[in-house]
Amino acid sequence: MEWTRMQRYGGELSFIMADIDRFKRVNDTYGHSIGDKVLQEVARTIARQCRESDLPARFGGEEFAVVVPSEVISGAVHLAQRCRQEIEKLNLPAKGESIRPTASFGVADAIGVACADLMVERADQALYRAKAAGRNRVESCSTRGADQAGGTGLNPPLQ
After folding, report:
1. Which of 2, 12, 62, 86 is catalytic?
2. Which phi and psi (to 5°) does residue 136 adopt?
3. Catalytic annotation present for 62
4. Under a CB-based contact definition with an 8 Å cutoff, are residues 36 and 74 in contact?
Protein backbone atom coordinates (compact mmCIF):
# COMPACT_ATOMS: atom_id res chain seq x y z
CA MET A 1 0.00 0.00 0.00
CA GLU A 2 2.76 2.48 0.92
CA TRP A 3 4.60 1.60 -2.28
CA THR A 4 1.49 2.46 -4.31
CA ARG A 5 1.01 5.70 -2.37
CA MET A 6 4.63 6.72 -2.92
CA GLN A 7 4.37 5.89 -6.64
CA ARG A 8 1.18 7.89 -7.01
CA TYR A 9 1.94 10.95 -4.88
CA GLY A 10 5.72 10.98 -4.73
CA GLY A 11 7.76 11.33 -1.60
CA GLU A 12 10.14 9.06 0.23
CA LEU A 13 9.88 5.47 1.35
CA SER A 14 12.37 3.33 3.23
CA PHE A 15 12.34 -0.27 4.38
CA ILE A 16 14.07 -1.89 7.35
CA MET A 17 14.74 -5.59 7.80
CA ALA A 18 15.92 -6.97 11.13
CA ASP A 19 17.05 -10.42 12.17
CA ILE A 20 17.68 -11.57 15.73
CA ASP A 21 21.30 -12.66 15.95
CA ARG A 22 21.96 -16.32 16.74
CA PHE A 23 18.28 -16.95 17.48
CA LYS A 24 18.52 -20.68 16.73
CA ARG A 25 20.84 -20.94 19.72
CA VAL A 26 18.09 -19.48 21.95
CA ASN A 27 15.57 -22.08 20.76
CA ASP A 28 18.10 -24.91 21.04
CA THR A 29 19.25 -23.90 24.52
CA TYR A 30 16.03 -22.72 26.19
CA GLY A 31 13.23 -24.16 24.06
CA HIS A 32 10.67 -22.68 21.73
CA SER A 33 8.45 -21.20 24.47
CA ILE A 34 11.35 -19.02 25.66
CA GLY A 35 12.22 -18.29 22.03
CA ASP A 36 8.65 -17.06 21.52
CA LYS A 37 9.03 -14.72 24.50
CA VAL A 38 12.24 -13.34 23.02
CA LEU A 39 10.44 -12.77 19.69
CA GLN A 40 7.62 -10.96 21.49
CA GLU A 41 9.97 -8.69 23.44
CA VAL A 42 12.02 -7.83 20.36
CA ALA A 43 8.81 -7.08 18.44
CA ARG A 44 7.57 -4.80 21.24
CA THR A 45 10.94 -3.07 21.38
CA ILE A 46 10.92 -2.36 17.65
CA ALA A 47 7.30 -1.16 17.72
CA ARG A 48 8.04 1.25 20.61
CA GLN A 49 10.70 2.99 18.51
CA CYS A 50 8.43 3.50 15.50
CA ARG A 51 6.36 6.53 14.65
CA GLU A 52 2.60 6.14 14.35
CA SER A 53 2.95 6.21 10.56
CA ASP A 54 5.62 3.47 10.46
CA LEU A 55 4.49 -0.10 9.84
CA PRO A 56 6.41 -2.66 11.91
CA ALA A 57 5.69 -6.36 11.33
CA ARG A 58 7.11 -9.80 11.77
CA PHE A 59 8.59 -10.78 8.42
CA GLY A 60 9.00 -14.47 9.17
CA GLY A 61 10.93 -16.67 11.56
CA GLU A 62 13.10 -14.34 13.63
CA GLU A 63 12.97 -11.55 11.04
CA PHE A 64 11.11 -8.28 11.36
CA ALA A 65 10.40 -5.48 8.93
CA VAL A 66 9.44 -1.83 9.19
CA VAL A 67 7.95 0.10 6.30
CA VAL A 68 9.03 3.71 6.88
CA PRO A 69 6.91 6.08 4.77
CA SER A 70 7.91 9.69 4.13
CA GLU A 71 11.45 9.15 5.35
CA VAL A 72 14.80 9.36 3.58
CA ILE A 73 17.24 6.55 4.18
CA SER A 74 19.25 8.45 6.81
CA GLY A 75 16.12 8.73 8.97
CA ALA A 76 15.39 5.03 8.54
CA VAL A 77 19.00 4.18 9.45
CA HIS A 78 18.59 6.30 12.57
CA LEU A 79 15.39 4.40 13.46
CA ALA A 80 17.15 1.07 12.89
CA GLN A 81 20.04 2.18 15.14
CA ARG A 82 17.59 3.13 17.91
CA CYS A 83 15.88 -0.25 17.59
CA ARG A 84 19.24 -2.04 17.66
CA GLN A 85 20.36 -0.17 20.75
CA GLU A 86 17.10 -0.82 22.61
CA ILE A 87 17.16 -4.54 21.74
CA GLU A 88 20.73 -4.70 23.00
CA LYS A 89 19.49 -3.40 26.39
CA LEU A 90 17.02 -6.27 26.83
CA ASN A 91 17.77 -8.67 29.67
CA LEU A 92 15.29 -11.53 29.54
CA PRO A 93 15.14 -14.20 32.26
CA ALA A 94 15.25 -17.82 31.10
CA LYS A 95 15.65 -20.90 33.31
CA GLY A 96 17.70 -19.06 35.94
CA GLU A 97 19.84 -17.39 33.31
CA SER A 98 19.66 -14.20 31.30
CA ILE A 99 19.19 -13.81 27.55
CA ARG A 100 20.72 -10.66 26.06
CA PRO A 101 19.50 -10.62 22.44
CA THR A 102 21.00 -8.52 19.68
CA ALA A 103 19.78 -7.92 16.15
CA SER A 104 21.24 -6.99 12.80
CA PHE A 105 19.52 -4.56 10.45
CA GLY A 106 19.44 -3.83 6.73
CA VAL A 107 17.92 -0.61 5.38
CA ALA A 108 17.02 0.38 1.83
CA ASP A 109 15.07 3.15 0.17
CA ALA A 110 12.86 3.31 -2.91
CA ILE A 111 15.14 5.60 -4.92
CA GLY A 112 15.87 4.06 -8.31
CA VAL A 113 13.93 0.88 -7.52
CA ALA A 114 11.30 -0.38 -9.97
CA CYS A 115 9.18 -2.36 -7.50
CA ALA A 116 8.73 -2.98 -3.79
CA ASP A 117 10.24 -6.46 -4.06
CA LEU A 118 13.55 -4.96 -5.21
CA MET A 119 13.58 -2.55 -2.26
CA VAL A 120 13.04 -5.52 0.07
CA GLU A 121 15.82 -7.44 -1.70
CA ARG A 122 18.22 -4.51 -1.24
CA ALA A 123 17.36 -4.30 2.48
CA ASP A 124 17.95 -8.05 2.74
CA GLN A 125 21.36 -7.69 1.07
CA ALA A 126 22.26 -4.93 3.53
CA LEU A 127 21.11 -7.20 6.38
CA TYR A 128 23.43 -9.95 5.15
CA ARG A 129 26.30 -7.42 5.09
CA ALA A 130 25.51 -6.52 8.72
CA LYS A 131 25.63 -10.20 9.68
CA ALA A 132 28.88 -10.75 7.78
CA ALA A 133 30.45 -7.68 9.41
CA GLY A 134 29.96 -9.10 12.89
CA ARG A 135 26.23 -8.81 13.72
CA ASN A 136 24.49 -6.31 16.02
CA ARG A 137 24.86 -3.50 13.49
CA VAL A 138 23.01 -1.57 10.81
CA GLU A 139 23.93 -1.54 7.13
CA SER A 140 22.09 0.26 4.36
CA CYS A 141 21.78 0.40 0.60
CA SER A 142 20.73 3.44 -1.41
CA THR A 143 21.24 4.74 -4.91
CA ARG A 144 21.07 8.27 -3.52
CA GLY A 145 24.80 8.06 -2.91
CA ALA A 146 27.28 5.54 -1.69
CA ASP A 147 25.92 2.74 0.44
CA GLN A 148 25.83 3.70 4.07
CA ALA A 149 28.11 0.88 5.14
CA GLY A 150 30.52 0.37 8.00
CA GLY A 151 33.10 2.96 6.93
CA THR A 152 30.76 5.95 6.68
CA GLY A 153 30.28 6.66 10.36
CA LEU A 154 26.60 5.75 10.24
CA ASN A 155 27.33 2.15 11.10
CA PRO A 156 30.32 2.09 13.44
CA PRO A 157 31.68 -1.34 14.35
CA LEU A 158 30.42 -2.56 17.72
CA GLN A 159 32.59 -4.01 20.47
Report:
1. 62
2. 55, 50
3. yes
4. no
